[in-house]
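Quick illustration for those who missed Monday's session on complexes.
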Amino acid sequence: MASPVSSDRPALRVALLGCGVVGSEVARLLTEQSDDLASRVGAPLELVGIAVRNVDAPRGAAVDRGLLTADAEGLVARADIVVELMGGIEPARSLLLAAIGHGASVVTANKALLAEDGPALYAAADAAGVDVYYEAAVAGAIPIVRPLRESLTGDRVRRVLGIVNGTTNYVLDRMATEGLDLDEAVKEAQQLGYAEADPTADVEGFDAAAKAAIIASLAFHTRVGLADVHREGITGVTAQDVVWAAQTGHAVKLLAIAEQTADGVAVRVHPALVPLDHPLAGVRGSFNAVFVEADAAGELMFYGRGAGGAPTASAVLGDVVSAARHRVLGGKSPEESRYADLPVLDPSRSETRFQVRLLVADRPGVLAQVSQAFSDAGISIESVRQTPVAADGLAQLVITTHLASEAGFAATAASLGDLAVVREITSTLRVEGAR
Ligand SMILES: NC(=O)c1ccc[n+]([C@@H]2O[C@H](COP(=O)([O-])OP(=O)(O)OC[C@H]3O[C@@H](n4cnc5c(N)ncnc54)[C@H](O)[C@@H]3O)[C@@H](O)[C@H]2O)c1
Ligand SMILES: N[C@@H](CCO)C(=O)O
Ligand code: NA
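Prediction with L-homoserine bound:
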């Protein structure tokens, strides 16, 4: 085996901000793989410090305690590459801007920060002629930022459907396969290192919405921020929803959807029924997948581990190597691409299919009244399934529509609610990915 090439070039100084689930794995890999990394970069990478809140807190054996410091500002001033793995908006934003100000390139996994204030970082980095890399911010280990930013930049992306939050995919999967309730499954995801510091960000869809904003910005060359994303989490998904999804040939997934229509760009995150024959339906556990539809490339799917320390560290290290190579060879990461500047549409303009479950009186003429509520809003029904309910002479209807506007469906739901024969609208879920 060829021995790693040792370089005469001076070491590139790498600073790590944060030493939690991801940061500790980045520190480990930087140390364990230092020879290979030096060969791949053309210069050694020297970890010069790790900023933490508490230098005395217990750490894994892989972390060199001599590198720990509570002085993050001092650390960023003496680095060529700053890797931010603290999370949150502040002090992460100020530290990254300070690093850029000192001429360092930056790598971050912080989708919350990028979705809120990414453009300020990109502009500062462009002005300073340094790199901003963030592969780990979307779908962890899965290469998706680089493919959208570089590999697919000669194509026209039309639509992206993603399972981009490992915690919620894990939770929905455990509900479906083990009958766990939401809280039990979230606790497991926390123990496994998938969940955000506050798992509400996962469960309520904020994490996926931040990733959706980043994906949409890259895919459509248009600035999309967190506030532009229509967001619903999984707290309303019940065990019965999961059971009925399976009964009707679907899986329940929290999807991030970014699509270009004739009028602009629509970006939304919500639980959805995915037909079992769609590749996204088979994405189990904490795995992530991003399904891209592009004009020339056709359909692509990127699949792998979207959360967890080592997988996320893999994406971070890839970015560190890219930034380090630019220090050695010259060159720069692509600038923010926002020339298309498409309007970001109100969610009421989106079109999708719906599946609604209703409890209705089981007597003549009920189906006619119910279907009238759909046709009054111009919505075409694809299928109706009726099952008897033991109690009170009721029946359950499971109705799936063809494509309908959000506004049209809202009108239908209101009309259904007003019908005396409708006892309850038990659940409404969108259906995505029908082919
Ligand atoms: N865990 C994952 O699977 C995963 C996957 C992809 C992206 N991310 C992102 O990576 C980042 C880090 O996530 P994590 O799971 O490692 O979080 P974590 O909570 O395990 O670690 C964060 C670390 O940063 C430190 N920190 C926070 N504020 C600090 C401050 N002001 N000064 C010094 N240190 C500070 C904390 O003490 C902690 O050690 C987040 O932006 C997260 O969204 C995480
Ligand atoms: N909390 C996130 C980590 C990856 O960003 C998840 O569950 O997917
Ligand atoms: Na990624």
